[in-house]
Amino acid sequence: MKQTRRKFINSSIVITTGVILQSCEGKEITTNKELSKNIPIVVSTWKNEGANNAAWEVLSKNGKSIDAVEAGARIPEGDPADQSVGYGGRPDRDGNVTLDACIMNHLGGCGAVTYLQHIKHPISVARKVMEETPHVMLSGDGALQFALAQGFSKENLLTEASKKEYEEWLVKAEYKPKVNIELHDTIGIIGIDSDGNLSGACTTSGLAYKMAGRIGDSPIIGAGLYVDNEIGAAVATGMGELVMRSVGSFLVVELMRQGMSPFEACKEAVMRIVRKQDITDIQVGYIALDKNGNFGAYSVKPDFVFTVSDQSGIKIHDSESYETK
Ligand code: ASP
Description:
This protein has 325 residues and is α+β, with helices and mostly antiparallel strands.
């Protein structure tokens, strides 16, 4: 007996996330392959061709989505020209580059690191937290010690370019986060592999010149990133405080569970921010992907873009926004 996927999710427990989905009574419902219209697919925040290409390299060879999103996130992390992520990231107001990242797989497993210093690829440390520890999140020196024990090397992440900008900032030391800084903030990347499994990753150096010890939304499961293999995935970029206050990525996924499209869910999550919080000079953007490979995005302010790779190639999309130009 065939049921619609929605009815199935509402009325049954998913026993397997493999090819065949079965209800509690053991009736065959349908297959992931039949459900999936546009897989594999990967979507990332901002203009991130390098990240998408690395992720697509994995997905196009029938690799796992968790490997794809990690591979994708590592590209801006290792790129000194990207001053919002990893190596070359802008420091906090004390001059320290402190990194936040999290990762989530199709089984609901997750790992995160916060306030991690001296390690170029926090997303890979987050994955080790997920796979090698009984915990979800490690922070600061504990995260660093764990990374070193796992074989990561200690490096100076403050490049000359970011150091120079920081020294210029110190002259006035005014804390004014810029909207859409350089059009490539935090990278959030979500994907579905050819088995229909979803994963996501999110990595950032956080807000430039943030207070020492400040943690944003990006490493917080449910805020910066959320994945539910039955429904879809969402990731956030922009002012993390607003995202954390509204548990944004979890909200987007739960709205999709209630029947909204990825676009509608991102829009409603943005509207919750707009209705309750001060959005003066603030950007927040969400991207979302449902289980069938449909994607959508919405942001508070214009100029949020996102990158999609699927069988048809790679494309940068403009997001709709609450405020317009
Ligand atoms: N969401 C990040 C944070 O608040 C910043 C960003 O996306 O640029 O740390």
